[in-house]
Design brief:
Elements (H helix, E strand, L loop, with lengths): L1 H7 L2 H20 L4 H18 L2 H21 L4 H4 L1 H17 L10 H17 L8 H5 L2 H4 L1 H12 L6 H27 L1 H7 L2 H4 L24 H7 L1 H6 L2 H4 L3 H24 L3 H20 L5 H21 L2 H17 L1 H6 L1 H10 L17 H12 L13 H9 L3 H25 L5 H16 L11 H22 L1
Length: 498
């Protein structure tokens, strides 16, 4: 068994794959169409890694792959193989865990309430497959992709663990820092070159979907290596926890090297903030601020984070803010600020998902008790669109199926009363992390940063979906359950110490 493990953990394959990721970034800088070919090679190499490497290594490879897979979708014209590659790789990883452990869920890490909500959600989804208002059994079954599989992903993460404090994990965090620094600089480069650079990489950046043409000229937003204009901002806030989980002492014994590594982590977070602002996705920028600030504050309350570090961080952010106008185009900088001002001038948030509008939608649009059926508000299958058109022909309106860009409305529209079970599961996880965080603050515990980081990140993502429908879908889904699992495992470890 040990011999097999040694073969599986050979660093050659992983090192070659990491080299390919950096080559991909370089090709983006020069606007090379070879990005398409290299991504195909990356996909094959990632597949081999996920299939052969131990979970605690494969999970980091998959996390890095998620940063690039959005671009793969674009350059390959949303070919089904590349549209589903991340889901396929995740499924392989989950199946390996289930086969190895011979069980689906390790109940030690979950409260009884969480397990009850999970059981009810699964049962309700099965019932929804036969919803006469839905698009049919097989079309509805497709929605297992976002109604069922993400929970298996969480259970795999919790069962196997992410091993944040181990040497390999810390090395991967440094690799991600370097990649995100380079991709942030790539975003600046793309903003300067605009579509001239993007169309050199692939004509699909302009022609694949009609909406892409809206983000040209002065309205251009950098893509990074994501699947949408401004899409890199999602990773800017999803990867914030790594800044706080990084421990240079694991990698370096000498003080100068530790200083360099710390400098790298600060460069990562500062450039991520700058790139996130550059992307002009307001919700992403605010989520990044909330995740960063809440973790900072709660770590300070447990007295682990020194005041001088907070001062250094604030000074660095201030320096970035003061210098930003010097390396961001002035017209763009003014336009980006103007876009943020629209939040107050136009009341965008209230128009989209204000409490009264949400209430009216839940009362007037939802078909209780079963809803419209799984997938009926999405475009995942032509069957959903055909069923909506059929409903419109018989008197419904297309607007009846709109979720207001609100996760909770989305769930009620599709699942009816069953939405309560999905939402209950989310908040049962969140409440468990919250209670443990409060306990840490009361005890001024300095040894469980993972719980605080997991709570803050999970809280922002769950509450933030009042203005989005992102939790069921990657990359948000993958990252949400990853960080939640880090917290849940840490809670179990703390209870065993007590």
């Amino acid at each position: 068994m040990e011999k097999n493990d040694q073969i599986m953990t050979s660093p050659l394959l992983i090192n070659l794959l990491l080299a390919l990721f950096f080559i991909q970034i370089f090709l983006n800088f020069i606007g090379s169409p070879l990005v398409k070919v290299v991504f195909a090679v990356i996909s094959i190499a990632t597949f081999v890694c996920v299939l052969t490497q131990p979970f605690k290594k494969a999970i980091w490879i998959l996390l890095i792959f998620s940063i690039f897979e959005g671009q793969g979708r674009i350059v390959w014209g949303y070919h089904p193989a590349f549209r589903l590659i991340f889901d396929i790789l995740s499924l392989i990883l989950v199946m390996r865990v289930i086969i190895q452990n011979k069980k689906i869920i390790d109940q030690r890490y979950f409260s009884k309430l969480t397990i009850i909500f999970l059981t009810l959600h699964f049962s309700w989804w099965v019932l929804e497959l036969f919803n006469p208002s839905g698009a049919g059994f097989f079309a509805s079954f497709i929605t297992a992709k976002y109604y069922i599989f993400p929970f298996f992903l969480l259970m795999a993460f919790v069962s196997e663990g992410v091993a944040i404090k181990e040497l390999f994990a810390q090395k991967m965090i440094v690799i991600i820092f370097i990649m995100m620094i380079l991709i942030s600089l790539l975003c600046f480069h793309q903003q300067e070159m605009k579509n001239e650079l993007m169309t050199k990489v692939s004509p699909y950046y302009l022609s694949l979907f009609a909406k892409f043409k809206e983000f040209t000229g002065e309205r251009f937003r950098p893509w990074g290596t994501s699947h949408s204009p401004g899409g890199m901002s999602i990773f800017n806030y999803l990867l914030v926890p790594l800044f706080f989980l990084f421990d240079p002492k694991v990698l370096a014994k000498t003080t100068p090297i530790r200083i360099i590594l710390n400098g790298l982590s600060y460069a990562f977070i500062l450039l991520s903030f700058a790139a996130c602002f550059l992307s002009q996705v307001r919700s992403a920028f605010f989520k990044m601020i909330l995740i960063f600030a809440s973790i900072y504050l709660l770590r300070f309350l447990t007295s682990k984070f020194k005041l001088k570090q907070i001062v250094v961080g604030l000074l660095a952010l201030g320096a970035l803010g003061a210098y930003s106008p010097n390396f961001i185009d002035q017209d763009f900088f003014s336009g980006a600020l103007g876009r943020f001002d629209q939040l107050s001038n136009e009341g965008v948030a209230s128009q989209r998902s204000g409490p009264l509008e949400v209430y009216r939608h839940l009362v007037e649009k939802v078909e209780y008790p079963f809803g419209y059926g799984p997938g009926m508000t999405t475009g995942y299958s032509l069957a959903f669109q055909e069923k909506r058109d059929e409903r419109v022909y018989t008197g419904a309106k297309h607007s009846d199926f709109w979720s207001l860009d609100n996760l909770y409305v989305f769930l009620f529209l599709e699942l009816g009363v069953g939405a309560v079970f999905y939402i209950g599961f989310l908040f049962s996880i969140l409440s468990r992390l919250l209670m443990s965080t409060i306990d840490l603050i009361k005890r001024r515990d300095t040894g469980s940063n993972e719980i605080i980081i997991a709570f803050c990140t999970t809280f922002v993502l769950v509450i933030g979906d009042w203005g989005a429908v992102s939790i069921p879908f990657n990359p948000i889904s993958f990252s949400l359950w990853l960080w939640a699992a880090v917290g849940l495992r840490s809670i179990k470890q703390e209870s065993e110490k007590a």
